[in-house]
Amino acid sequence: MAKIDVMRVERGINELLFHPQIQEWAGVRAVEQVALFSHTRPDGRVYSTVGDGLTFENLMFISGLSSYELNDTSALAQRIVNNWYNSPTGHREAMLSASSNLAAVSTYVRNGTVYIVHLFSDRTMFFMDFLI
To answer: Is 112 helix (H, G, I), strand (E, B) or coil?
Structure first.
């Protein structure tokens, strides 16, 4: 169980389910962070316009990592989650929101900087889930 889900379960909150559509949207947002590191998209729209049903977004970028640090994805993920959890700006609230059901993370690396986006949704299912 991922650390975020452990924290959620300890507080009586549902685990987050992964959704590939949300990961696709997180990938778009990760690339957009290169142009504008913000919850606002480079075209001026709010982050949630990248997809339907998004409720929260956590962002981070990390520069100057060694190749060892870049390749130790477990330690890097733990560092990111810890930074969000200890952040005073609402990241913890996003991770622990009882209204969130779905989530996905995406990263984008450019010129040695890792851009990380974690998107959350209050949806339980998307229309595309019926097309399988």
So the answer is: coil
**Residue count of the chain:** 132
Residues 6 or more apart whose Cβ sits within 8 Å of residue 114: 61, 62, 63, 65, 70, 76, 107, 108
- CATH fourth-level superfamily of 3-121: CAP (3.40.33.10)
Amino acid letter for position 109: V
Token reading at 118: 């974690």
Residue spans of beta strands (DSSP E) within the chain:
17-18, 54-62, 102-110, 113-121
- pLDDT tens digit sequence for 58-103: 999 999 988 888 888 888 888 999 999 998 889 999 999 999 999 9
Tell me the three state secondary structure of residue 50.
Answer: helix
Domain limits, the chain:
3-121
